[in-house]
Amino acid sequence: MRDHLTSTIAVGDCRIRLMRGGAGAPLLLLHGGGGFGIWLPSMARLAKKFDVIAPEHPGFGESDTPPWLDTIGDLANFYLDFLDQLDLRGVHLVGSSLGGWIAADLAIRNATRLASLTLIGAAGIHVDGVEQVDTFLCTDEQRIRDLFYDQQLAEAVIASSERPGLEDIALKNRMMTAKLSWQPRNHDPQLRKWLHRIKVPTLLIWGDHDRLFPKDYAFAYQGLIPGAKVAIIANCGHLPHVEQGDEFAAKLEAFIGAMRVAA
Amino acid sequence: MRFFNFHLMPYRHADLDAIGRNGSAWVTFSNRHYDPQKGSELYHEYLDQMELADKLGFDGVCLNEHHQTAYGMMPIPGVLAGALARSVKRAKLAVLGRALPLINNPLTVAEEYAILDNLTRGRLIAGFVRGIGAEYHAMGINPAHSQERYAEAHDLIVRAWTEPGPFSYAGKHYQFRYVNPWPRPYQKPHPPIWIPSQGSGSTIRWAARMRYTYCQTLSPIAAVARFFQMYREEADKAGYRASPDQLAWSNTIYVAETDEKAVREARPHLEALMNYFLKMPTEMLLPPGYTDPASMKRVRAAKVTGKPQSIEDVIKAGVVIVGSPNTVREKLAEYQDLAGFNTSLTKTQFGTLPDDMARANMMAIAEEVLPPFRDRSPGGARREAAE
Question: Is B136 at the interface with chain A, CB within 8 A?
């Protein structure tokens, strides 16, 4: 039994790919610089309680690269159009890494369609004095190793990434990630000034061994978003929804569940 | 043929083992390894060599631009061009930087080049480059903006030189309420523009259309011939016949009494250049967005970076010419006829080559190579040979 469908939709002049499955309140999942990926076990689990919507960003993979796409802010506005077009309300917005940056920027601009915000190992701000790997100045293999705590998992991902046919998409994703995040590296100096405007309940999920945006970033975000909660996942790198999918989904479900009780 | 003495100004005292351990002499190779006492001596040594080139009859001297590297100590080539503008009396002064996309205010390049053109009373050659990929790591400029910034900066600089100011300019990357640089360039309408490149098809097409001199960097002569043929074809398409003067080959020449002696003397210094100063990983050379995905895939598949090269390899491939005066003359004539160029941008100092050897090499080239090539043009067979 298929628990999700992949389709293409047009928002304005831009056609993007979309995975969608499950039923319940909408949960919009924004991917990171690595791209669209697959329908993960954690997504399948969340689809039992939510209408999980996972778009592929403009400029990535098989989605269009529109001429107007230059900044993270462009993607934040694009997803506001997307929410309007699908007329989604009470959305649980979840963003990983670069997708977390888009989500935070979107929530500052307009949170009227949001019920909650969850950032996973998110980019977007800069924290002084925290050692971070340079994902642009390392080999493809090392970049994958740096994503994971479990190096056996990293090796499996490395092996599967070497399949022919994936290179075009990987290069397109890398190019767009560079365009969006090279300078200032992985952040917008203006973003932190306005994070206090985020009034929806916010959860910050971080792997305790995130080498891209170490957990200091979770606590920095917590200091900037009023009432934000931090959930650190043990034995986990930059991608908790991939590496510790069950625990990630459990934390997210508990956070949203507690929100409902409070309401 | 015209000869330019092309200097990279390497930090030739660099600890090669330390470069080897670091994996590259670029970006991440700590400037702890730069000794200002030795470096200051090198600047004077190299500037003296450029002045010697002028006295020996070279038609020009070339500077270039690279950042955060022991490969070359010229991050701001205009400073050194300024030092040479009054001491080099006769030769042209070619700055084969400036890496336009790295600069946040291209009007500073319009100003800098215009000053140099005035100082030299019209002997400046204005180079415009994108800079290699490593520059984008070093200078914090987005490689995905490189081509747009280059095109915009070029257009702005040429307009600033040729249109009476003030005018305003509103581009995507650069905006100015007033464009009105003083001084204006000495040459009319502006200094000759030269375009060095590693052989990008779009750059060659553009340079040919603009009638700019195209300079091919460090490449095997067969590839040089292909790129120059592409330039001639693009010129034909643009409705004119390209002159061999518009084509410049960037090479290295070392001359000694015999082939054996030349190879023996040049070997450690040339191999230091090829295998240490030039070494960098692919991800440093080609950051994402620097070039289109098709070229990126080609380079990744070829795994061009990292293979150690011997002096025999680069002689055989025609990247360099090393030998007795006779051998050098024969090879240079063969390559000139094959590729159809009329300008040689020649590194006479390279890698770790010390001052006495560099000067002896310059004098040998001036005596043995320059005179017979002075009035030589590419042979009639070049178009067929380059097919």
Answer: yes
